[in-house]
Each structure stands twice: as structure tokens, then as C-alpha cells.
Design goal:
Number of strands: 42
CATH superfamily of the largest domain: ATP-grasp fold, B domain
Oligomer: single chain
CATH architecture of the largest domain: 2-Layer Sandwich
Largest sheet: 8 strands, antiparallel
CATH topology of the largest domain: D-amino Acid Aminotransferase, Chain A, domain 1
Number of domains: 6
CATH class of the largest domain: Alpha Beta
Helix content: 25-40%
Distance between the termini: 81 Å
């Protein structure tokens, strides 16, 4: 007889053939052992779907009738996340996909799958007719929209209702009321929720935008009324920026949401972005599930989130939670939702917006409360009451989430990168680590969709534990084939300001005013890296020598070398390094200082654990070539190192340097994307800084300007063209 164990607070239940019985007062030694095991495993499994059979700490009655089949109207990690909970609940799933996603992970996980169109989102994941046809064809009783795409589309929810299909989310009234930034602000005011001063109507044109901005007082925030996710938002500090912001925001809003209406409100400088997770049912009950700190952002999009916040005291937390619930009840909200606030340095908080869907960063809330929010959404959609009271909602420990993106963090804190994941390993072997992803080795990151690779979540009994675990998880994360933002993520979580909790939404531009440059090595770290590079070089030589010795065709030298004098170039400096071998350990002299470097030296593994004078590190040697060039990922950042013997280094001085191409007369696309507008034609004269082209990547528009004054010689692209990173767009004389 098989049984699954479910830990519910301090109560142990046994599920046998779908029925739950309370464990008898007298328990066997085997059961006592199981209880002990669960106690030690609970904190580990709270944050991981992949590790054990222990589920979330609050479970519903397994005899509750539920849906037989749910269609997941999304892709990527959130589709996989929803499917996992459906499997746990015994619900069959239907995946939808575009033609380029036919081999995606979420398609393989689902019980059924259907193609709904070609790659562009408006022809597939936003294709209402194709999705409705799939629902009818598969007999799905309900639809979970995830986040993005159709998750806040009232027309989709209405069409589902007309067909008798359940939308796993709030009703159309709540979606419309909260999805419209203008209407939601008016409702919030009526519900006595603190709001930001601003203009409550629709801004008609750029001239009116300037007039309103002057009345409010600069700086102002220009926002898409139907927007979210950082799209259709611009900060303006003067009239010119208001006109430009109006143009870009309206274009992005139309592209992303099919609605170009804008509003303007006072921009609160240096705030924190703190949001409250709420959960409501169809019986008038609503709860707030504590807060999430989401202040680390770039281009108004979140990068690192955590729960709880270091900033809130119990009184402020309660006040924010109660206002969030008041807003939810004002629109009879029934599902999971998020009320976002801006919080100033004096703990004054102001309503920003309400997202009527599951939030990207929901895992950190699940970690500290023990609730499965997807399961709660499904239960509410089926008509059940919430199982919990406000007093039941705990804050257990601390959780931190890093959004791992296929982006180049050295360019505007993250311009999109595309490519194929040639090697991919998640650090799931580590305790208290959860990864929500929808990709695998061999997956393609394309220009058509969000470049998120995964959400990496770590959990600890306190914030210090969660941060330490995050450092280790980032170091153990293997991603090859695309540029990624792990260097930035790792630097953020170890920065003294972040560690102290002294953060605002301006953290990145304030800490890195000249842009992100990677980890700045301390004197000791510099020597560690040099010693590690020298040791890897020697270990590779010895491995090659062993191969030759085992070969029957090629004779090898028999004299065993014990010491190597090397020249190691790191950045612009050249260093003398002497490596002496003693078993699997190397004594490495770097500029007069000796370090001991020990490892198993398994160079075939993507992860290389090394111990340097009792300091343990995980390094990744991304590449090596015959010229001694190495790319080594150390403390999150990739460093270019060249290791040569003394003789080779001396001869290398006579090698000619490759001349760099002169690109001053061409405009190159800094990212893959599509051309929105071309503002010049051959023969036009341009001035330095003049906008000449707009590229849209991942639904964000980017203005490209002329690097110097001159005359346009040739335009290589047209509006609507797809371009790759490095493609020539415009040539100048």
C-alpha cells in the first residue's frame, strides 16, 4: 500500500488511495522516522518542486471536486509552473504553443498540446480565435492565463464566460477596473487607499502632456493606462522629455496592450517599490499575504525581489495590507492579485497599480507562507472559500528571487541576447533552492518573447542565510550559448547597500552611474584568480601529457616536470606566476606571494570547485585555446586571461596586433529586434545625438542616435525589418 506524506503545519496526515485520515495517537517507528525526516526536509522542500514529495504547508481536501482539464494559455516558465500544480492536483493540462515553441518544455510537460500560430505573439499567444478553437477541441473546462499575454485581457475572460469555460482569475469587472490605470486610481481614492498626486484623465496629445506636467510639477511619470511590466512608462524632467516620453509611451502601449491611452502623475524620486500579495474568493473573503520588496529594477522592470521587506515595520505592513484588501473588496476581487505601492523614506506609501493576475515573483511569497498560489487560484475559480484566516498567514524565514535573463548586463544593465543554450545546468543539487524555468539544454532564446531564462529562488531561516545561498546558487549555475545577467545579479546581492537593505528603485543607476562593469577584484581576489588560471593551465598540460603517455602511436617524454614558470595576463597587467605541483595540489607563487590551490581538476566538468588557502570557490572555465587564452567565470564575472610559458610570452611580443575596425561612420544595431521607424534618408544631414532609428526588442522601444554630425550615405533597413545584434543599419559619409 502506497502513501504520500503531507506536512500541514505541525499536523501529519496520511493520504491513502485519495482519502485523508488523521494519524493515530500511537505511531510506529517507521512513521516516527518519517515525521523526523519531514521536519528536516520541510524547509528544503518548501522552495523546490523538484526535490521531494513534501508539498506546501497548507493543503485542501483531496476529495474536493475540481476541474478535469485546464488549458494553460501561456508559455515558458510560468506555463511549466502551472502545469506542475495541476499534476499535483490530478488535473490534466493542455498546452498551447507557437510553431517555434513546438519542442518547448511546457509542451512536453502537458498532457495535450496545440499549435495556435506562428512565432509573433499577436498571431499565436494573443490569437483569441485560435485559442478558443483549441479550448473547444480539447474540452478544457478552465483556462489559467499565467502572467502577461492574455492574463489581464477582459475580452478573453468575457469570451470564455460566454462559452461556459472558467477563467482562473478575477471577473471581467475587476480586470477592467484595475487594468485601467485611470479608473483604478479613482476606485482606490474612493476606497481610501493612498494615491499619488496626478492627472486622473486621459492625456490627448503631447502638447496637453506638457501642460499637465507643468501643472503637476516636474519630474512626472508618463504611464500607459492599460500597461504593466514596465512597458509604456517614461520619466520626464522637462518639456522636451515629456514630448518624447509621450511619443514612446503611446507607441509601446499600443504595441504591447493595443491601447495607447496615457496618464501622467507626480514622479516620486528615490522610492521603494513594495507590493502586497492578496487573495480573494467569490464569497467576499480577502486576505493579504504579506509583502514583496521589488526595488531593484532596470527600465522599470524588476530584477531582484525578496520577501519580506527589510524596511517595513509591523504597523506599516498591516496598514498596507489592509488598504490592499480594501481595494480588492471594492471590486469584489476573487483570485490571486497584487497591489503595488511606492514607499518613501518616511514609510509613506502610495498606490501604484493593481495586477489582476499571478505575479512573476510569486515564489518568494509561497516560500515564506507555505501557500501554493496556483492551487489557491484554481480552488477559488472552482467556487471554494479560502481555507485560511488572516491570522493564519505567517512569515516563515526569508526568500530572495533573482530573475536570470538572457541579457548583456554591461549594456544598459541588460540588453537582450538571443541564441541556443549549448550547455545548461540548474543548481538544483543545492538545498533551499527553487528554480522556475521553462527551458532546457538546446532551447532557443528568440527575439519574439521575453528573454527570461529562469527565476532562481533561495530560502533561509533569515535574510543572511538566503543571501549566502543565492551567492552559491549563482556560482553553481551553468549557462552557455547566450549572454546572461548572472554577473549583475551576483554583484547586487553582495553589495553593502543591498546587504544592509538600503535600497530604492534608483539602486542600479546610483551604484553604477557609469554602467555596470562587472566585479571589481580586490588585491587578494586578483591573486586568487591569477593562481587559479595558472593551475588550470598546468592541469590541462598534465591531462594532455597523460593522454599522450597512454597512446600507442605517439611517444611521450618520460621526464616528469614539477615546476612551471608562466606569464599570466589579466586585464592590462602581466604577472609572473610559478606553479609547483604536489599531487592534486599546486603551490602557486604570484608576484612574490605563494598560494595553495587544490582541486580534483576535472576539466571536463563545467563546474570546477577549487580551494585557495582554505577559501572555497566555484569557478567555471568557459573556454581555453592553444594560444593560452581562457575565459574564467570567477565570483560571477567572466575574465579574459592569457596564460603562456615565459618563452611563449617573450615570442608573443613580436606578434602583430589585429587592427580594430573603424565603425565611426556606421550605425550598428545594439540588440536583436525589429525596426520601428527610420528617421533619415540618404542625403540627409544629421547632428550628433539626433535620433535616426528606433528598434523594438522584447516589446521595449529603443532610440538610436547618430554618434557624430554628418551626412547619411545609405540606409540598410526599413520599418518592420527584423535585425540582429551587430547588423549595419545606417552608413554615413
Amino acid at each position: 500500500m502506497s502513501a504520500d506524506w503531507l506536512l500541514a503545519g505541525s499536523r501529519l496526515s496520511i493520504v491513502v488511495k485519495g482519502r485523508r485520515k488523521m494519524a493515530a495517537p500511537r505511531v510506529s517507528a517507521a512513521v516516527r522516522l518519517a515525521i523526523l525526516t519531514l521536519k528536516h526536509a520541510s524547509s528544503h522542500s518548501r522552495c523546490s518542486f523538484a526535490v521531494s514529495r513534501v508539498l506546501y504547508s497548507t493543503v485542501s481536501d483531496l476529495n474536493e471536486p475540481t476541474f478535469d482539464k485546464i488549458l494553460v494559455a501561456n508559455r515558458g516558465e510560468i506555463a511549466c509552473r502551472i502545469i506542475k500544480t495541476c499534476k499535483k492536483m490530478g488535473i490534466k493540462t493542455v498546452a498551447i504553443h507557437s510553431d517555434v515553441d513546438s519542442n518547448a518544455v511546457h509542451v512536453k510537460m502537458a498532457d495535450e498540446a496545440s499549435c495556435v500560430g506562428p512565432a509573433p505573439t499577436n498571431k499565436s499567444y494573443l490569437n483569441l480565435d485560435a485559442i478558443m478553437e483549441t479550448i473547444q477541441k480539447t474540452g478544457a473546462q478552465a483556462v489559467h492565463p499565467g502572467y502577461g499575454f492574455l492574463s489581464e485581457n477582459k475580452e478573453f475572460a468575457r469570451r470564455l464566460a460566454d462559452e461556459g469555460v472558467t477563467f482562473i482569475g478575477p471577473d471581467t469587472h475587476a480586470i477592467q477596473a484595475m487594468g485601467d490605470k485611470i479608473e483604478s486610481k479613482l476606485i482606490a481614492k474612493k476606497a481610501k487607499v493612498n494615491t499619488i498626486p496626478g492627472y486622473d484623465g486621459v492625456v490627448k496629445d503631447a502638447d496637453e502632456a506638457v501642460k499637465i506636467a507643468r501643472e503637476i510639477g516636474y519630474p512626472v511619470m508618463i504611464k500607459a493606462s492599460a500597461g504593466g511590466g514596465g512597458k509604456g512608462m517614461r520619466i520626464a524632467w522637462d518639456d522636451d522629455e515629456t514630448r518624447e516620453g509621450f511619443r514612446f509611451s503611446s507607441q509601446e502601449a499600443a504595441s504591447s496592450f493595443g491601447d495607447d491611452r496615457l496618464l501622467i502623475e507626480k514622479f516620486i524620486d528615490n522610492p521603494r517599490h513594495i507590493e502586497i500579495q492578496i487573495l480573494g474568493d467569490k464569497h467576499g473573503n480577502a486576505l493579504w499575504l504579506n509583502e514583496r520588496e521589488c526595488s531593484i529594477q532596470r527600465r522599470n522592470q524588476k530584477v531582484v525581489e525578496e520577501a519580506p521587506s527589510t524596511f517595513l515595520d509591523p504597523e506599516t505592513r498591516r496598514a498596507m495590507g489592509e488598504q490592499a484588501v480594501a481595494l480588492a473588496k471594492a471590486v469584489n476581487y476573487s483570485s490571486a492579485g497584487t497591489v503595488e505601492f511606492l514607499v518613501d523614506s518616511k514609510k509613506n506609501f502610495y498606490f501604484l497599480e493593481m495586477n489582476t493576475r499571478l505575479q512573476v515573483e510569486h515564489p518568494v511569497t509561497e516560500c515564506i507562507t507555505g501557500l501554493d498560489l496556483v492551487q489557491e487560484m484554481i480552488r477559488v475559480a472552482k467556487g471554494y472559500q479560502l481555507c485560511h484566516k488572516q491570522a493564519d498567514i505567517p512569515i516563515n524565514g526569508w526568500a530572495i528571487e533573482c530573475r536570470v535573463y538572457a541579457e548583456d548586463p554591461y549594456r544598459s544593465f541588460g540588453l537582450p541576447s538571443i541564441g541556443r543554450l549549448s550547455q545548461y545546468e540548474e543548481p538544483l543539487h543545492m538545498p533551499n533552492v527553487r528554480i522556475d524555468s521553462g527551458i532546457q539544454e538546446g532551447s532557443d532564446i528568440t527575439i519574439y518573447y521575453d528573454p527570461m531564462i529562469s527565476k532562481l529562488v533561495t530560502y533561509g531561516g533569515n535574510r543572511a542565510e538566503a543571501l549566502q545561498r543565492m551567492q552559491e546558487a549563482l556560482d553553481n549555475y551553468v549557462i552557455r550559448g547566450v549572454t546572461h545577467n548572472i554577473p549583475l545579479l551576483r554583484e547586487v546581492i553582495i553589495h553593502p547597500q543591498f546587504v544592509k537593505g538600503d535600497i530604492t528603485t534608483n539602486f542600479l543607476p546610483e551604484v553604477y552611474p557609469d554602467g555596470f562593469k562587472g566585479h571589481m577584484l580586490s588585491h587578494s581576489e586578483h591573486k586568487e584568480l591569477l593562481a587559479t588560471a595558472g593551475s588550470i593551465y598546468v592541469a590541462a598540460l598534465l591531462r594532455a601529457q597523460r593522454f599522450l603517455e597512454n597512446s600507442t602511436r605517439i611517444p611521450a617524454a618520460t621526464q616528469e616536470q614539477k615546476s612551471w614558470e608562466l606569464s599570466v595576463q589579466l586585464d592590462d597587467g602581466v604577472h609572473s606566476v610559478t606553479v609547483s605541483r604536489s599531487g592534486s595540489s599546486y603551490n602557486v607563487e604570484v608576484d612574490g606571494k605563494t598560494l595553495n590551490v587544490t582541486s580534483e581538476w576535472n576539466l571536463a566538468s563545467p563546474l570546477l570547485p577549487v580551494t585557495i588557502d582554505d577559501t572555497q570557490r566555484i569557478v567555471q572555465c568557459l573556454s581555453r585555446d592553444a594560444a593560452g587564452n581562457m575565459k574564467i567565470q570567477y565570483l560571477g564575472t567572466v575574465y579574459n586571461v592569457q596564460v603562456l610559458t615565459k618563452l611563449a610570452a617573450e615570442l608573443n611580443k613580436y606578434m602583430l596586433d589585429k587592427e580594430t575596425d573603424d565603425t565611426s561612420n556606421i550605425l550598428i544595431s545594439p540588440m536583436p529586434g525589429s525596426v520601428v521607424t527610420i528617421g533619415v534618408a540618404p542625403g540627409d544631414r544629421v547632428t550628433e545625438g539626433q535620433e535616426v532609428c528606433v528598434i523594438e526588442a522584447m516589446k521595449m522601444q529603443n532610440s538610436l542616435a547618430a554618434a557624430k554630425s554628418g551626412k547619411v550615405m545609405k540606409v540598410h533597413c526599413n520599418p518592420g525589418d527584423t535585425v540582429g545584434e551587430g547588423d549595419i543599419l545606417i552608413e554615413f559619409e
